[in-house]
Here is the input.
Amino acid sequence: MRTALIIGNGQIGSEVATQLAEAGVAVRIATRSGGGTSGAALSKDAASGTVSDTHPNGTLPAHSTHTSSGPTTVCGPVHVKADASDRAQLTEAAVGVDVIFACAHAPYDSRKWEQVLPLLDAAILDTAAELDIPVVFPESVYAFAGLSSPITESSPFAPVEDKGRIRQQLIEARDAHAATSASVIAGDLLGRTAEKWSSVVRMCITEPISHGRRAMVPARTDVPHGITVIADHASAMIRVAEDLKGVPAGTHQLRIAPASNPILAEIADFTADTLGQKHKRPLSVPRWATRAIGTFERSFYELNQLAPIWYEPCVITPGELATEVGATDWREGVRQML
Here is the structure.
C-alpha cells in the first residue's frame, strides 16, 4: 500500500491516518470542510503515488516537504475538501489511491442514519468499484445486539432497533455490491483519540472520575461488555485492507477487530486506581430512567433502544485479526484517555 484515502477525520479515521503515515503511506483525508488548518487543494500524480498540495494562502503545510520541481512528497496526511456523498468530488479525491477507509458517519440519531448512511455507503462503493479500489468500513455490534451468544464473524444478524437494522442493511448492501470491501466490527471504543461525546466509556466513566465525580452509566456495570481499543481497530482495518489485495472483485469480508469483555465496574475501579482515587461504585442508571430522559434527549432515546448490549452481557469473540495485529489491553486504552 503506497497511498490511501481516509473519508472522515474522527476518532477512527484520525488513528488510521496516524498509523498509515507512520508506516510511510501517503495519506489523504477527505472531509467536507477540508480538515484541520490546511484546507489544501490537491493535485495528484497517480503514477508515482505522490501528491502535491498548495495551501490557499500560498504556503505549504508544515507536514509537507518541497523541492523546486516535480510533485511534493507528503510525509504526513494531506487534507482535501470533498463531500463523500458527491460521486464527482469523491472520485477526484480517490484517483490514484490503493485503498479507501470509509470512516465518515452521521449524528447519533437513527432518523439521520436512515437518511444519510445508505446514500453515503452507495456513493463510496460505486466509486470504489469504478476505480477498482478496495474499501474498508469500521462497523459496530448493533446489527447483532439481540444475540444471546457471543458475537463472532459467523454470527447471524439480530438487530433489536432501527440503528441495528440500518447497520444490517449497510452490511448486506456491501456484500451484494460489485466493489471489493470489508467491514471490521469493534466493541465500544476507548483510547487516545476517543472523543468525549462518541466514546461511552470516556463520557460516562473516565471523564467524571477524572473530575472527582462518580461514574454514571446507562447500563449494568456487573456484566461483560465488548470493548475495543481504537488503535487496535485501526490496525485491524489496515491489515484487512492488505488482505483484500488480489481477492475476486465483489468480495466482502466481515471481520472482528481485537476486543475484550471487561465489566464496566472494572473500568471504573481501574480508572480510580490510575488516578490515585478511592473506589466509588459506579451508578447504574436504570432503563426506565433512560427511557424517560429519552423523551426529550435523543441520544438517551437511542441508547435506551439498544438495551440488550447495555443491560445484558455483550460478549465479542475476536477472530484471527486479534492474533495477526495483536491486542492492546483495555487498561492501556484507559491510560491513553487519561
Summary: The mean pLDDT is 87. Residues 48 and 96 are 9 Å apart (CA to CA). The chain has twelve helices and 13 strands. The longest helix spans residues 110-131.
